[in-house]
Structure formats: C-alpha cells, structure tokens
Backbone:
C-alpha cells in the first residue's frame, strides 16, 4: 500500500467510510478530557508474534484526520514482529491520536492477522511448486486491504472481483445446461484474453471440462485420491487448482499432489487478528 495513487483512488474513500462509521458527530470521550489542541506522543507496540501488514493504511487513517500527524516506523510490511516490539511512534494532536486509534488498529490488526496466517500456510507449501491463492470470501468493503495482506504474507491473489475473470461454478453450469455449453458461451462472450476456469466436483465433470477446452480446472472438495485421478485425466491440458475447506491444519496433505494452485478462503474469512496496541500516550 505504498503506491499513493492506488491509495488515493481506491483506499481513501473506504478509510473515510470507516472513520465516519466510528465518528458520526464527535468523539465525546476525547473532547471531554482534551477540549483544546495538545501535542502528544504514543507508541505502537506489538503484543504477538506475526507478520506486519497494513502500516501504510494505519498511517493513512491519521493523515486523513490530520495531515500534521507524524509517524516514525521501525518495521515494514512483510517484516516478522515479536511481542513487546516497538513498531512505530506517533506524534501529533492528542485528540487526533485518540480519535483515530480504533479504526487504525482495526485495519492493522486485521491485515497483519491475514498476512500471518497466509505466511504460515505458504511456508508449508515451500518447494512444492504450488501457489497459494485467496478467494472472494472477503469482508465487505475490506477486499482491497485483505487481498493486499495475502500478498504480504506470501500468497497470491485469485480474481479480484466478478469483472476480473471467468469462473464457471456449479450454478453457472446449471444455468447454461452443461460444462460444454457454459465454456462455449463464455468463449463467445468474454474478451479473448480472458482464461476460462471451470469448477468440477466429479471425474466425469473433469473429463467434460478437458474436452470443452477449459483453461483452468478447479478440483472442488475432492479427496486427495480423487484429485490424483483427476490430474491423470487432465494430463497437462489445463492448469489445475484445488479448493474446498483448505486450512493450516490440512493443507500439507495437498502439498505433493502437483496441482498448480491451492485456493483458500480461510486466508481472509478465518484468520485471527494480530494483537497490536497503541500504548504509553503522553503530552509533549
């Protein structure tokens, strides 16, 4: 999130929405104890082992409230952080530091948690040649932040949204009437530069997807044994992706299958937040 153009075009409005949600009129608590501007300093402290992600978003929250706030970071996105580690020092109007605290930490804790969980799974897949992908199972209005955190953690992004790629799932196939018809219709409608991915649940569906000319075949909720058979059928005629309730606890069983991609919704819908706090606020 260091690209200022990307931040301004895509993230600023979402961050402002989060701030408006938290401050609909005024910060009554802060205004009651700090009625006038006062320069202060506060420390950003890590309380749990993990991977930092979202420091630029954290900073942007305060900058949108008050551009005079200064933040000195002692780590970067992608760095490993440990309990007790000083991650940053913030200096500015105490009222801004207090009012922006929760929203800024919500982003940082959430994004760092996703990066940490992604890193744990990606590490288990090292050396396999299989790439770890996220999904569209993201928190509403948080997708840009959550998918960025996946990349920081060592994962890769699947399609960003419905306009970004073609994935024919079971209900699309049902609407078209068959995999063959769905692939044909997608090929005729979509721009020629788009790859067509088909979700399959049985070996019969895999055979039909191969014959229909799918570019990517997803093996959904199959056992490792069934996936091995599916890979023999595909035999390099399409890229392969396996999916279905993949977690940190069970991903290793998929490591040696030889699929090109493993997609994991848990990266964004089940990653716990990383415990990070703003502490030791004092006036200057």
Residues:
């Amino acid at each position: 999130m260091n690209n200022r153009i990307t931040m301004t075009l895509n993230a600023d409005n979402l961050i402002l929405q989060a701030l408006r949600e938290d401050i609909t009129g005024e910060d009554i608590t802060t205004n009651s104890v700090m009625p006038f501007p006062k320069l202060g300093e506060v420390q950003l402290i890590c309380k749990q082992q993990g991977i930092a992600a979202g420091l630029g978003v954290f900073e942007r929250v305060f900058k949108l409230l008050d551009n005079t706030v200064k933040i000195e970071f002692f780590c970067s996105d992608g760095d490993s952080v440990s309990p007790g580690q000083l991650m940053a020092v913030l200096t500015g109007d105490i009222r801004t530091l207090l009012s922006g605290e929760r929203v800024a930490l919500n982003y940082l804790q959430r994004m760092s948690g996703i990066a940490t969980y992604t890193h744990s799974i990606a590490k288990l897949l090292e050396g396999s040649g299989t790439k770890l992908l996220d999904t569209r199972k993201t928190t509403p209005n948080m997708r840009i932040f959550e998918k960025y955190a996946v990349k920081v953690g060592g994962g890769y992004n699947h399609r960003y949204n419905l306009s970004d790629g073609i994935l024919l799932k079971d209900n699309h196939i049902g609407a078209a009437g068959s995999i063959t018809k769905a692939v044909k219709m997608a090929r005729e409608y979509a721009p020629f530069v788009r790859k067509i991915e088909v979700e399959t649940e049985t070996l019969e569906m895999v055979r039909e997807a191969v014959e229909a000319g799918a570019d990517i075949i997803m093996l959904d909720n199959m056992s490792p044994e069934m996936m091995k058979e599916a890979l023999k059928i595909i035999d390099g005629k399409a890229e392969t992706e396996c999916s279905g309730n993949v977690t940190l606890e069970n991903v290793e069983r998929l490591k040696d299958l030889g699929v090109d991609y493993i997609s994991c919704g848990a990266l964004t819908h089940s990653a716990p937040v990383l415990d990070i706090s703003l502490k030791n606020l004092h006036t200057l």
The two ends are 30 Å apart (CA to CA). The CA atoms of residues 133 and 263 lie 4 Å apart. The longest strand covers residues 39-46. The chain is about 40% helix and 20% strand.
